[in-house]
């Protein structure tokens, strides 16, 4: 926890010292996923959310992802990132920061973060990140909001997480990827600020990572039905 708060102080100081601080500050909070997952004998509450403050030239972003299993009442995953974003083109920002993983079971890990975030052609939202540490990994995420009507939206998503080194303590083996694919159908209640949704979420761990997951008594292939809210302020 100290690592994240120390990084926040450093990044806030950088923001205030930047020439961009003379520009008008703006902020926002967004939860792309805030949901209940149920499938194959397991139930969990999960979220994928971020908050930012900054200008068009420099933003400080806090991102949080987690999965809280209700059976053992513990965080199976809990990941927080503190990132600086600066524009490198009309639709993409460069990203640098820190990531801290602190699940209830298993070791905690700290990584440096380098990446790109933005909109690709046809308005696909893309995140490509490299996580640097003794146990490096890479992650690629794509999401698309397809309007069915002015209020009904179907959002497919895909995430590929590839370990680049063995880390058996966290059931990860080099180049044994984890793939997550989802589809969520939402209805905008309040001008896109609040949108309840239902959908399906599938995750599969491949290769040696899958073997390590099964050796821990977990499933390497899980399909879940989901119900939740998308929030944006």
Radius of gyration: 18 Å
Distance between the termini: 26 Å
The count of helical stretches stands at 2
Q: How many strands, which pairing sense, and closed or not: the largest β-sheet?
A: 12 strands, antiparallel, barrel
- Can you write the helix and strand succession as a string? HEEEEEEEEEEEEHE
> Which percent band covers the strand fraction?
over 45%
| Average of the residue pLDDT scores | 89
Number of strands: 13
Strand order of the largest sheet: 1-2-3-4-5-6-7-8-10-11-12-13
Portion in helices: 10-25%
Show the helix and strand layout.
Blueprint lengths: L1 H16 L8 E14 L2 E13 L4 E11 L4 E14 L4 E10 L7 E12 L3 E9 L4 E7 L2 E2 L4 E12 L14 E10 L6 E12 L1 H9 L5 E12 L1
Antiparallel strand pairs: 1-2, 1-13, 2-3, 3-4, 4-5, 5-6, 6-7, 7-8, 8-10, 9-10, 10-11, 11-12, 12-13
Task: Walk me through this protein's architecture.
With 233 residues, the protein is mainly beta. The two termini are 26 Å apart. The chain is built from two helices and 13 strands, in the order H-E-E-E-E-E-E-E-E-E-E-E-E-H-E. Mean pLDDT is 89; it is low at 1-21. It has helices at residues 2-17, 207-215; strands spanning 26-39, 42-54, 59-69, 74-87, 92-101, 109-120, 124-132, 137-143, 146-147, 152-163, 178-187, 194-205, 221-232. The protein has a twelve-stranded antiparallel β-barrel.
Short description:
With 233 residues, this protein is mainly β. It is built from two helices and 13 strands; from the N terminus they run H-E-E-E-E-E-E-E-E-E-E-E-E-H-E.
């Amino acid at each position: 926890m100290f690592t994240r708060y120390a990084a926040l102080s450093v990044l806030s100081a950088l923001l205030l010292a930047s020439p961009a601080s003379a520009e008008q500050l703006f902020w926002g909070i967004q939860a792309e996923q805030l949901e209940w997952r149920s499938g194959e004998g397991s139930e969990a509450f999960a979220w994928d959310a971020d908050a930012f403050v900054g200008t068009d030239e420099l933003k400080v972003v806090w991102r949080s992802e987690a999965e809280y299993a209700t059976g053992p009442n513990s965080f199976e995953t809990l990941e927080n990132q503190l990132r600086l974003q600066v524009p490198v083109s009309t639709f993409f920002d460069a990203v640098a920061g820190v990531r801290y993983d602190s699940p209830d079971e298993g070791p905690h890990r700290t990584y440096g973060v380098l990446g790109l975030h933005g909109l690709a052609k046809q308005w696909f939202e893309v995140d490509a990140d490299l996580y640097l540490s003794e146990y490096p990994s890479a992650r690629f995420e794509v999401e698309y909001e397809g309007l069915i009507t002015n209020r009904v939206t179907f959002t497919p998503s895909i995430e590929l997480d590839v370990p680049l080194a063995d880390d058996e303590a966290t059931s990860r083996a080099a180049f044994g990827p984890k793939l997550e694919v989802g589809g969520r159908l939402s209805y905008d209640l309040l001008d896109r600020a609040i949108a309840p949704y239902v959908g399906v979420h599938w995750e599969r761990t491949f290769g040696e990572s899958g073997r390590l997951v099964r050796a821990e008594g977990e499933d390497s292939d899980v399909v879940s039905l989901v119900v939740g809210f998308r929030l944006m302020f």
